[in-house]
Every structure is written in C-alpha cells, then in structure tokens.
Design a protein that fits this description.
This protein has 21 helices and two strands. The chain has 445 residues and is an all-alpha fold. A two-stranded antiparallel ribbon has the order 1-2.
Length: 445
C-alpha cells in the first residue's frame, strides 16, 4: 500500500483518450488516504465484487467449520482414504489432472475454494500435510488456469479483443498443459515421498498436529451404522452435486456467470445447516459454530481489503495508464524475441495490482497486440505471453483474494507458503520463457 502511494507521488498522471496517451494534471492524493484505502474499496471502484468475495469467504468458512464439527467431512475423507491408501501416487495423478483440467478448460479458479478444506483433510488422512492438500487443489487448479487450453476468461477474452479466432492455437497449448502437468505431479510426488520418509520435514508439521487433534476423536464405525448420520451424508453429497451444477451452469447460461460465487455460498451454507441438523445437532449450536468459523477468518478479510487497496491507490492516483504507457514504449523499442518476454514480464507485474485476468485483458490487450504486430510478433504469441503472465502468479502474489482465502481456510501463513512454492514458481518462469522463445522460432500462430 505504501509503495503504491509513493508511486502516485513519483510518477506523473496520465490517461488514454481514443488509444492515444496524454499526460494530465496530477490531482492531490493525500497520504492519509493511503491508509483509508482498505475502507474506500468497499464504497468506490469494484466494491460489489470485493463485498461478494468477503461474503463468500465468511459463508464458506462458517459452513466448513460446522461440517467439520459434525464429522461429515472427516467421515467422507476416511472412506476415500481407505480406497486409496495403497495407491497414493495414483490419487496424486488423478486429483492433479482433474483440478488442472477444471482451470485449463473451464477457467475455474475461485470456485474450487469450498473443496480445499476437503482435500486438505484427505491429505492428512493419507499421512501428508496441509501444503500437500493445497498443492493437490489450489496449485493444480491455478497451474491449469495458467497453462490453459480453452480458458474463456483469459484466452477467450484476449483472443476476442485481438480479433483472433476463438480458442485457435489450442494444439500447442495442449502440449504446454501436459508439460506443466508433468512438472507439477513430479513436484507433488517428490514432496509426498519426503513426508512419508520424514514427517517432521513438513514446514507445517506442528501446526497440523494441533489442527488434527480437533477432528480425530470420533468412532467412524458407530457413525457408519447411525441412520441419521447416513442420511446427513447423503444430504451433503446432494448439495455437492448441486454445487457442481452451479459451477458448470454459466458455461451454458451466461446470465448466471455474475452470480456464481454468491450461489455457491448460499448452497454450501444451506448444505451445512441441513446436514448438521440431520445429525441431531441443535440449531443454536449450528449457528454458533458457523459464527465462530466466520470470526476465525477475520484476519484473511483484512488482508483481502489491503490487497484490493493497492489497485485502488494506483488507479485513483492516476498513474495506472502511465505505467502501461511506459511498458508499451519499452516493448516497441525492443527486438521481437525480447519484446515477447517483456510482454510476459509486464503482465506478470500488472497481475500484482490487478488479479482479474479479464480486467487485465480489456486494459492492455488492445494496446499491446498492435505493438507486437508492428515489431513482428504474432498476435497468438502475445496472447500466450499474456496467459502465462496472468496465471501462474495468481497462487504466489499476496494480492490475490483466492490465495488469501485459501490460506485463511487452511491456517497457513503466507511466508510459509512462499518458501514452499517459490522454487516451483521460478522453475515455471524459466520453462514458460523457453516455451515463448520456441513458439516464436516455430512461428506459433
């Protein structure tokens, strides 16, 4: 926040008018407003989206807490872990592929948040840790979103804005998806082997130990033979099927796309209340547990507001378009092979401030694609660089709401997460840069 505020003092204000950049008179943006920005984002700018994300976080967090208390999630995880206890590596391959495919083909990312606690519990039951659970769910989906084949929110929007046939060039992207998949499963399998050899090697070992104690005291054989509990499990599975329908529905009925998060929130809240009630848990206790689950996520909400304020500060301070103008000048003066890497770098930097792939596409694709054409870079390649820059860092930057929510639900600190993931991220930065260079030399279009 402070760095963004300082940039509003150093960098001159400007804006694009009919695709032409002009400097404008800088309006005063006092320092005290930098610190009020986390509150101002709830009133101005993209306030509705931010409020919806916070409501989503609270409802999902409270619902997950009640379902854990009722032992529903633990029971389902226990059944699943029994089936895969002798085929752990197969489970890694399957889950990684499923979550990557959701991101790569449907553009699903934030919608998988309700599934993350479920996968974390599964990871515990198989002798792994919370980070492994996040790797199988959040990282897999995020990498699929970045190494996308048909992602409508990045590739679809960018290709439409660049007047490129929708989802063209998919065959080369399938190859990229497979390379990314192999790298990720290798990373996860190696990490699981490390945990199985030495459980104390986990960066979250002691933290997981405390969390596990809350959920392990239960006789699953008694629950299995309890008629009410069995009905509660069936009720929960029904709502999970309904959630999958809600996730997929916008791809057939566009109208629902603006309401997906809130519908998922309501669905999982109703699922938790009705499921817990069927286990004979009193309604008063259900609502108290849900409220406690919501309150436990208050630090994550503060982080989301602070992260959102970064984009708000540079936009309100009038320097966002100036930054894009500087970047465009750097690209136009560089040789083709370097310019494509600069596009990648520029989008990578912008993703820190603007996490929405569609918003970035509308902002910079109309400016970057014509520049790329002038210096001899294919539109398709510029879009691929945009896709890489937008995607992989979503699960690394502390300004991404989905990452902050996921870490909040999993009780993992950002510093621990960064240390665990940074080597894989740097490897993917190198690999994707090489892919862009190869794509340029083979004339990918």
């Amino acid at each position: 926040m402070i760095i963004s505020g300082l940039l509003t003092i150093i960098i001159p204000s400007g804006k694009y008018i009919n695709d032409t950049f002009v400097y404008i008179e800088k309006e005063p943006y006092p320092i005290w407003r930098w610190f009020l920005a986390p509150l101002e984002v709830l009133i101005h700018g993209n306030s509705i989206a931010i409020i919806m994300i916070i409501i989503f976080l609270l409802l999902v967090g409270g619902s997950i807490a009640s379902l854990k208390e009722a032992k529903i999630l633990q029971f389902l995880i226990m059944r699943l872990s029994e089936k895969f206890s002798e085929n752990k590596k197969t489970l890694i391959l399957v889950l990684c592929f499923i979550f990557m495919s959701l991101g790569a083909c449907l553009g699903i990312f934030e919608e998988i948040i309700p599934l993350i606690p479920f996968i974390v519990l599964l990871s515990w039951s198989l002798g792994w840790d919370t980070l492994m659970g996040l790797g199988l769910s959040l990282v897999s989906c995020g990498f699929g979103f970045a190494a996308a084949i048909l992602n409508p929110f990045t590739i679809g929007v960018a290709q439409t804005l660049a007047n490129v046939p929708i989802f063209s060039g998919a065959l080369f992207r399938v190859l990229i998806f497979l390379i990314t998949y192999l790298i990720l499963v290798t990373f996860l399998i190696n990490y699981s082997n490390k945990l199985e050899k030495e459980k104390y090697s986990s960066p979250v070992y002691f933290q997981d130990l405390i969390c596990k104690e809350k959920y392990n005291v239960v006789d699953y054989s008694l629950l299995k033979n309890n008629n009410n509990f069995r009905k509660a499990v069936e009720n929960f599975l029904f709502y999970m099927m309904l959630m999958l329908i809600i996730i997929i529905l916008p791809f057939f009925i566009v109208f629902f796309s603006n309401y997906t998060l809130i519908l998922i929130s309501i669905n999982i809240l109703v699922a938790s209340i009705t499921t817990c009630y069927q286990t004979e848990m009193p309604l008063r206790d259900i609502f108290i547990i849900i409220l406690k689950g919501m309150l436990a996520l208050s630090p994550a909400i503060l982080l989301i507001l602070m992260a959102s304020s970064i984009n708000y500060i540079i936009t309100t301070g009038g320097i966002l378009h100036t930054l894009i103008f500087y970047c465009s000048n750097a690209i136009s003066s560089a040789p083709p092979i370097l310019s494509i890497l600069l596009i990648y770098l520029i989008v990578l930097v912008l993703n820190f401030f603007i996490s929405s792939g569609s918003a970035k596409a509308f902002l910079i694709i109309p400016l970057l694609v014509p520049l790329a054409e002038i210096i001899g870079v294919e539109k398709q390649l510029a879009i691929l660089a945009f896709q890489f820059g937008d995607g992989f860092s979503n699960i690394l930057y502390p300004t991404n709401a989905v990452l902050l929510i996921s870490l909040g639900l999993s009780n993992v600190s950002y510093s621990t997460w960064f240390k665990w993931l940074i080597k894989l991220q740097l490897l993917m930065l190198l690999i994707t840069s090489l892919i862009l260079c190869i794509a340029y030399f083979i004339g990918y279009k």
